[in-house]
Design goal:
Two copies of one chain form a homodimer. By secondary structure, the first copy, chain A, is of the alpha/beta class. Chain A contains six helices and twelve strands. In chain A, α1 (15-26) links the parallel β1 (3-8) and β2. Chains A, B: GO terms for molecular function: hydrolase activity, acting on carbon-nitrogen (but not peptide) bonds, in linear amides; hydrolase activity, acting on ester bonds; metal ion binding.
Chain lengths: 291, 291
């Protein structure tokens, strides 16, 4: 690993990464390691200026091979994605070895590390982060390959999403900022130790939450929302949900229970940005990952 | 009191009031009282459609006499304010007797009732609400007269703001929705009991938080934010702040302490919408109000 990019502001109203970039640009000591070069990238400054997640379309959905090479996709984020791909990639043959993409969520997810694949390098990374930061939560979105992912961090052969909440859009909370800064530091430390072949003894396994499915908010036939996340589930990210547990409250007062055949771990619960698509939450299965 | 208006969506990304309006339009039983007429008003539907607080300027700052009668103020919210003033007012000679304006905040303010004046009617109202809803917080913004206020609820001779949080912008939380619905119901009950001269025995006094001043976030000479609310103060709305207590953390790590000569009660702490003006929080003094 010779080149690491730390990306902030992929979503313009997720402020922790944007403020950390500003801090590191003024004083880069905390992100510099001897064994590799670190660069910082402000992915969507125009959305930040307008205090929005995005102008035309979600930046963090633009990085599939197909879309990056489609000349007909020309809106602001689609264009900006092509520029970032040229700067950090190109995807599939990237000059950047590792991307850390910094995100906030309005959900109560704490300091979460989202892995796009669960190869040996990433398993050791997660074990290292968990050993240094017991509050850290590991989320696996390895249901498809990195090449198939459309996230910004999929430009590089290795990339992660640091996802920290709860933080309202367009707010900066000290606790959330510090979690993000700490997790980023551990990731950089890990890459440095890996490069120098000086990794400490790591835990032999760790718990993680493997993405399984996404639930929509209750809708009527016209596609209008007719309910909300049940108060028992609100803020209960990574707490188990069982068949028959209340999951939604309709505005008419009735309650919808979850009907599922497995022990589900909701996360991204009631994330503000997912209302665009009427999404209520993601569900994961808890797994034990051998390192 | 013959006419009461319940206003939601004055800010387009404060969802509780907007969803309650929708609920009441489908089933109005819970807001109807025998002794007065209730109407509902969606103040800024266009901002809601765009999922923003406002399009051109903050709607809830447009209702001063001067601005309402200024023909040069023609942007969207300024125009919409004139329409609402014609519909509910006109201010100073309004056909509406009482306005309940429904708001959310990202701050941890719980169910707050903001009074624009502390006359006998409002003191009894607050005492009634507190007696029915012990979690309710009473905030006095009576430092100027209703006529001088620029809030939407100042159109009517009597008006209040129901301000409930914490809720991220563009999110609907069940707990926050239920607090807002409950407080609105108590206000309607109070007006009905008042009209019928059937008020119960009320507490002889109550505690309230009287607005005193607004603090800005730390800025450099270029007006850029250089710090954030200190973690001790985050979420500590209506908790006392004393001279020497940490209040801001600068991004360089240094800490700013509050220098003030009184016991201050911060609220609207780190409210997302106030970043537009680099505001950090409001400070109140705790007072005991005789009913």
């Amino acid at each position: 690993m010779k080149t690491v990019a730390i990306v902030g502001g992929t979503h313009g109203n997720e402020f922790s990464g944007i403020y950390l970039l500003r801090k590191w640009q003024q004083s880069s000591a905390s992100i510099i390691r001897d064994s590799f070069a670190t660069e910082t990238v402000f992915a969507n400054p125009k959305a930040y200026q307008e205090n929005k997640r995005y102008l035309d379309s979600d930046m963090n959905r633009q990085f599939s091979h197909t879309d990056l090479t489609d000349p007909l996709l020309t809106n602001y984020e689609q264009s900006r994605a092509k520029v970032l791909n040229a700067q950090l990639g190109p995807k599939g043959d990237a000059r950047t070895d590792f991307i850390i993409d910094l995100h906030n969520t309005t959900s109560n997810m704490g300091p979460s590390l989202i892995l796009l694949q669960s190869d040996a390098f990433n398993r050791k990374l997660a074990a290292y982060v968990v050993s240094k930061m017991p509050d850290a939560v590991i989320v696996l979105e390895d249901q498809i390959s990195v090449a198939e992912h459309y996230f910004l961090s999929s430009i590089a052969p290795q990339g992660v999403i640091v996802e920290v909440g709860p933080q309202p859009q367009s707010v900066i909370r000290q606790d959330i900022l510090e979690w993000m800064e700490e997790m980023t530091g551990h990731i950089l430390d890990y890459i440095d130790l890996y490069n120098r072949d000086e990794l400490p003894v790591l835990p032999s396994s760790f718990e993680a939450y493997k993405y399984h499915e996404t639930l929509k908010l209750p809708e009527n036939e016209q596609g209008e929302r007719i309910g909300m996340v049940h108060r028992n589930v609100q803020d209960a990210d990574f707490k188990p949900l069982h068949n028959g547990d209340p999951i939604f409250t309709l505005f008419d007062g009735s309650i919808i229970c979850w009907e599922g055949e497995y022990e589900a771990y909701p996360h991204f619960i009631n994330e503000a940005a997912y209302y665009d698509n009427n999404l209520a939450m993601s569900l994961a299965k808890k797994v034990v990952v051998e390192v």
